[in-house]
Design goal:
The chain has 263 residues and is mostly helical. The chain is 76% helix and 9% strand. The protein folds into two domains: 4-36 and 90-262, Multidrug efflux transporter AcrB transmembrane fold (Up-down Bundle), CATH 1.20.1640; 40-87. A hairpin with a 2-residue loop joins strand 1 and strand 2 (50-56). The radius of gyration is 23 Å and the shape is elongated.
């Protein structure tokens, strides 16, 4: 048995440091929202063998044709339209509302399910803490990508965030199930010992499962299209973070809560 919880303060320091750096980028530079959420038009032209990307307020087809004609005139060439999509501000606001509602419902569903499945509020609370930890890291790292590589929050990012939530909780449930098994055998006399046994038994399986996903995502980043690049990167961040948080955030928090309950 490996005493993983011996280094719980190291895990805490790593998590706090990564979250602090990421959130500093969020608050200082922000993360731009795509037109999916704020509305407008996104247009791409091929002009003289170069690709020009534009983002403007919502344009009609007539306005787009007029803009293309001006580009033709200025560039002394013919602009070929590659992409033209428009989202109204009302649609963008509706997308934001649906995203918030979906996230809240997801967290509540996880809280209720784990609470009933493990018959303990501490199990549910620990899983939610790990989930929030993962979301902070995902948003923080994405803010860094936004600052250096112009990443935007779009519907694909929200999909990646919700997927991260499910992945994080999945690994956590596997570990918690083992902890519960050892508690039934040994009682809650030494919850830390039960947690270390559970982590020792599940760690290799969790890493093997995660690495298969990581390799697939790396391949998609290298050979996939540019339109899904940041979506895949967000999934990669979520996969790594979820693999880390289940044993090194959720489990130490559970042990701490269970020890407090005994006092």
């Amino acid at each position: 048995m490996i005493n993983f919880l011996k280094y719980k303060y190291l895990y805490l320091m790593i998590s706090v440091s990564v979250i602090a750096v990421g959130l500093s980028f969020v608050f200082r530079f922000g993360i731009p929202l795509s037109i999916d959420f704020v509305g407008g038009s996104k247009i791409s032209y091929s002009v003289n063998s170069k690709v020009v990307n534009l983002r403007t307020e919502a344009l009609s087809e007539e306005q787009e044709k007029e803009m293309r004609a001006n580009i033709d005139k200025e560039s002394s060439g013919e602009a070929e339209i590659l992409l033209f999509e428009t989202v109204g501000p009302s649609v963008g606001k509706e997308a934001v509302n649906k995203t918030v509602i979906a996230s809240i419902l997801g967290v509540l569903a996880i809280l209720i399910y784990i609470g009933f499945a493990f018959k303990g509020f501490n199990f549910a609370l620990s899983a939610i803490v790990a989930l929030i930890h993962d979301m902070f890291i995902l948003v923080g790292v994405y803010a860094i990508l936004s600052y250096y590589f112009n990443a935007e929050i779009d519907t694909l990012f929200i999909t990646a965030a919700l997927t991260t939530m499910s992945f994080s909780v999945h690994d956590t449930i596997v570990i918690f199930d083992k902890i519960r098994e050892y508690i039934r055998e040994e009682g809650k006399v030494n919850i830390e010992n039960s947690a270390n046994k559970a982590l020792t038994e599940t760690m290799v399986r969790s890493l093997n499962n995660s690495m298969t996903i990581v390799f697939m995502l790396l391949a998609l980043i290298l050979f996939g299209g540019s339109t899904i690049k940041f979506f895949i990167i967000a999934l990669l961040i979520g996969t790594i973070t979820g693999t880390y948080s289940s044993p090194f955030v959720a489990t130490p928090v559970l042990v701490w809560l269970e020890k407090r309950k005994k006092k």
